[in-house]
Amino acid sequence: MSPRPRRPVNRKLPPNLYANGQYWRYKNPITGKMTSINRPLEEAVKMAKAANAKLAPLMAGDGEMLAMITGDKLPNMRHLIDRFEKEWLPDRKYADSTLEEIGYKLERYRTDLGDLLVGQADVQVIAEYLDQFSNNAYTKHRALLVNVYKFAVAKGMAERNIANMTLLKKEEEKKRQRHTMEGVQKMIAASTTPDWLKRTIRLGLLSLQRREDIVTWQKSAVDLENNTIKVSPGKTEGYDTPIHLKIVMGKAMRQVVLECMKSTILSPYLIHYQPRARRKEQVEAKEHWTCITPDYLTKCFRIARDAAHAYDYLPSEERPTFHELRALGAWLYEQQKFPTEYVQALMGHADEKMTKEYQEGHKAKEIEYVEVGAGLAL
Questions:
Q1: Other CB atoms closer than 10 Å to residue 229's CB: what's the count?
Q2: pLDDT exceeds 70 at position 356
Q3: CB neighbourhood size of 148 (10 A)
Q4: Do 31 and 51 fall within a single domain?
């Protein structure tokens, strides 16, 4: 990042010297520590210039001079982010999809802020970096950076949590409208909608499962002989009692599952596709070359929805996404007189009536699946 311009009150001062009421403060460009200088301006300027001259060789080459002298390399943001990812993240019980999203953000910070020394960043640097993001993205990036700096303070790499001192914004309320059956049918009938996406839409409506669980649903979870399919919703992994479902398939759901199983593309996943190009970096970033990431599903759904003109009467920001299929599916089950408890169980909501705790005692813990049904007719 290029250095930010100084405020008018500080422009005539030497670098790292700042006005502090009637007196002055000097910011160490390496550690970020602020030191009060209760002296007249002329003396403060001399002290700042002398300090800058002394520290200048240590700043060259990202602290290479200091590394040669002390054997210790100054921590930059890339080093901090690496340690945060290695030492802080593993202790959190985040779903795989959440970890993937955090990983994307951290990689962006490495690119944008990586060469900046931890001590060089201040509140204004982080605030200006966050300002490039829209409201909801701003709040998510800020929350992650607050955790990064909380870790930095705990490890002695920073004196204070400067991200926590930036402006806290409230997330805008989502304005997405509900799906209609007519809109969904337009998408499924459209020639512009890929076959794998048509199957995904039907599977989402019938199973009421989340995007992240649908794209990671493996064929090995299917038991055609007993007409069941198992799923462990990833969002419940952080619960005291994680939820595991064994869904008895209705006629419509069994049909779409069979279509997924009969695909000519060899894949361990029910929902899969054949990429046009298999670039090495893309293949290595995924569990399997045929798998579909949650973000890619969202992108393809949005493109197919607009290509099918399913919701042209709505502003683009209000058109329903793949996630809203759960709400439509739940409403359809209600219209077909399925009990509320049936729908809650299928959606994987935490409920004492539908879940049991893991076996305790000396025996090894085993997963016990709760049997539910997915009998919606399309």
A1: 25
A2: no
A3: 23
A4: yes
